[in-house]
Amino acid sequence: MERAMERFGASLLAQFRHKVPVELLAALRRECDDHAVVCSESLVVVPNAYGVELPESVHQELERNGGRVDQVLTDSLLRHGESRGYAWAGPLAVHVTKAPSVPNGRYRVTSRVMRHVRAESFHH
Fold first, then answer.
1. How far is CA 31 from CA 3, 13, 14, 63, 81, in A?
2. Which end of the chain is less packed: N or C, by CB atoms within 10 Å?
3. What kind and span of H or E run contains 93?
4. Cβ–Cβ contacts within 10 Å for residue 4, how many?
5. Whole-prediction pTM value?
6. Which among 93, 95, 12, 104 is positioned nearest to 48, based on CA atoms?
């Protein structure tokens, strides 16, 4: 089991080095879409603070390699929101953190509304 998790972690890390996994991007977009609030015909508001938790080993490796995955994810989610005509509840930020365990063994995505958010001080 431990070797399988190590192989999975190495595989996930390899995907992050070259591109953000499509599955993770899809999960972020789903999180955004699932929490959209229709305020009027022309106004749909979505959360602006998103958290992505990764297994500790993957997160540590990304930090060692200077990865800016949070910015890549923020940019991608921004493009998604623009394509849907969403209004963000505040400044958009996606913050990637490490977690001792995640439900599916790969990542956990959450969102919430925060008035003032900076990726460096994001605490989810």
1. 31, 22, 24, 25, 11
2. N
3. strand 93-99
4. 9
5. 0.74
6. 93
**Structure tokens given for 41:** 């015909």
| Class level of CATH domain 2-121 | alpha beta
Q: Residue 76 is encoded by which pair of tokens?
A: 């991608």
pLDDT in tens, 73-117: 899 999 999 999 999 999 999 998 888 888 777 889 999 998 765
Q: Outline where 43-119 has alpha helix (H).
A: 56-64, 69-84
| Residue 82 and residue 90 in contact, taking contact as beta carbons nearer than 8 Å | no
**Cβ-contact 111, 31 below 8 angstroms:** yes
Spacing of C-alpha 18 from chain mean position: 17
Q: What sign does the CA torsion over 49, 65, 76, 29 have?
A: negative
> Is 38 exposed, middle or buried (CB count within 10 Å of its CB: 0-12, 13-18, 19+)?
exposed
Show the tokens assigned to 7.
């192989």
